[in-house]
Description:
mainly alpha, 37% helix, elongated
Amino acid sequence: MIEKEILSEVNQLPENLQLEVLNFIMRLRKGYTEDDKDMIIPDRIFGRAKGMFRISPDFDDPLKDFEEYM
């Protein structure tokens, strides 16, 4: 019964997250102390975090707290 639920949830995940689930299962079987040389590493996607972070326009301006040192 739980196998069907697990498979259903895993099948709904994108492929990169399915690889992470597979890696986790492999680590559980081997134990966390062994090397993870044979783990499947998902490809990195350039720009994946685009739009998730915002830097304020005054990011590079000197900080007021350090005015006396400058």
